[in-house]
Amino acid sequence: MSTPFSRREILQKSLALGTLVIASSHAPSAMLHALEQSEQRKPTPPNDLGPFYKRLAPETTSLRVAGDPGMPLAVSGQIFDTRGEKLSGAVLEVWQTSHVGHYDVEGYRYRAKLIADASGAYKFDSVVPGHYPDRVCQHIHYLVTAPGHKPLVTQLYFATDPVFDGDPDKNFSRDPLIHSRELVRPVTLAGDPKDIIAKVRFELCLERA
pTM for the whole thing? Predict the structure, then answer.
């Protein structure tokens, strides 16, 4: 299997082949560096691991099983590093409560291990998690690892959470553990009234080690 080119190598090849033209008196290397810097991604803000993490979660994309109560949920996204490189093979561990806010501490319900595909993409099916007394907002925990990168511990929150009163921009800090509005993601409703599903995209960006 051939090794994928880095972003810098692609830009250098494009320059050599004439598909990238630099119209500047500055050195090409300086212009390429500036272009790379402009394409830098910000790392995903971290968030608490919490007390309910369990090792050895099963590798599955289906946290929800037939007949589970609660709003069906489909989460998807891609994993990048700060240079915009897609992190193929990154490992995600996700865990959450049931729709009524209960963690399975005896087994592995609503817990999973996921492997990002060749494009850095991941997805899983679940239910919208519930609230529970020790936490203000609905959330899903993430632990993401990839060789050569710092582990990312973070959480996904839902813009439709009633706690935000419809305005997460203003009210996200009602949960004292949410330190960044970026972690509160919009929700799309799909399907039909008899078979509705909530969909959320959550892109992740890891820092290089």
Answer: 0.83
